[in-house]
Amino acid sequence: MQPLASKNNVSSFGEAAIAFDRVTVSLEGVSILDGVSASVSRGGSTAVVGPNGAGKTTLLLALLGQVPYAGSIRIAPVAGGGAPRIGYVPQRLQFDRGLPLTVMDFLVMGRQRRPLWLGSSARPRAAARGLLEAVRAEPLADRRLGALSGGELQRVLLALALQQEPDLLVLDEPSAGVDVQGGIVFCELLERLRGERGFTQLMVSHDLAMVTHHATHAILINRAFVAEGPPRDVLTPRNLSAVFGLHMGLVDARSMPNGQAACSCERHLEAAP
C-alpha cells in the first residue's frame, strides 16, 4: 500500500482518497481479483457492489493489508502530509457470546493498561459513553456484548471504529444481519457522522436500494472491474443483468434517485447484450 505522495499522482486521480491500480489477488491458485482499477472519492460514500464471490471483501482486505496482492493501492495523505487514520467495521465479530463482557468493557479495554477486572478509569469510560451517544446507542453501555442483536452490535462496532477518529472509515456489509428499517437507520446515521466528522467512507454492500439512495459513488466488480461512477449511472439494467443475471436487469429505474441516467462507465462488458 502506497501513499499518493506527489502532486502528479493526486492530480491524475482527481480528488481520490484511494486509488486501486490493477489490483490482483490469487489465493491458493484461485483468482479472486483480476486487475481491478478504481478510485474512492475523498469525503464521499463509496460502495463496492457485486455478486457473491465477486471479490468485494477481498478488495477491502487488500486495502487493509490483510491479504497479499499485485498492483498498487495508493492512499492520499491527510492535510500536513501524514498517513490517514483508518477505522474498520467488520461484517461480523467472532467471539464467545457467553463471556461476561459488557459493551462498556469492550470499548474501554483497548484504552487502558490495567486489566478490566481491576475496573476502568473515568476518562476512558467518559470517552466510550461519548462514542455510544454519537452512534445513538447510549442505553447499551451496561448490556452484555453477547446479548446484543445484529443491529445493536453493528452500532457498537461503529463506535469502536470511531475511537480511531478515522479519516477513512471502511465497512464490510454494514446492513448484513439487520432488517430493512434498521439498515436505513444505520445508513442515515453514517451520513450524519460523515457530515459531522468529515471522513471518507468505503463500504461493501449487497443492498442495491441502499446503495442507490445513500452512496455518492459506486464501484461495480465481478472479480474484474465493471464500472464506477454515480450509482444511478453504474447500476443500470444492462450492467445489473450482465453481472447478477437477467432478473436483476428488470429493476425499476424509477426507484433510483433522480431517475435513470445513461451509463457513463469507462468500460463495458463485452458479454452484455
Strand order of the largest sheet: 6-7-8-4-9-10
The CATH architecture of the largest domain: 3-Layer(aba) Sandwich
Mean pLDDT: 81
**Number of helical stretches of at least 4 residues:** 9
Distance between the termini: 37 Å
CATH superfamily of the largest domain: P-loop containing nucleotide triphosphate hydrolases
Helix content: 25-40%
Beta percentage is: 15-25%
Indicate the structural class. alpha/beta
List the uncertain runs. 1-14, 258-273
DSSP E strands, number:
10
Provide the number of structural domains.
2
Q: Which CATH top level class of the largest domain fits? A: Alpha Beta
Q: Could you spell the SSE succession in H and E letters? A: EHEEEHEEHHHEHEHEEHH
Question: What is the 3D shape?
Answer: globular
Biggest sheet layout: 6 strands, mixed
What report would you give on this structure?
This protein is an alpha/beta fold. It has two domains: 1-85 and 167-273, 3-Layer(aba) Sandwich (Rossmann fold); 94-164, no CATH class. The chain has nine helices and ten strands. It has helices spanning 7-12, 56-63, 103-108, 122-134, 150-162, 180-197, 208-214, 231-234, 237-244, and strands at residues 2-3, 16-27, 30-41, 45-49, 70-75, 86-89, 168-172, 200-204, 217-222, 224-229. Helix 6 (180-197) links the parallel strand 7 and strand 8. Helix 4 (122-134) crosses helix 5 (150-162). It starts with a strand and ends in a 29-residue tail after the last helix. Mean pLDDT is 81; it is low at 1-14 and 258-273.
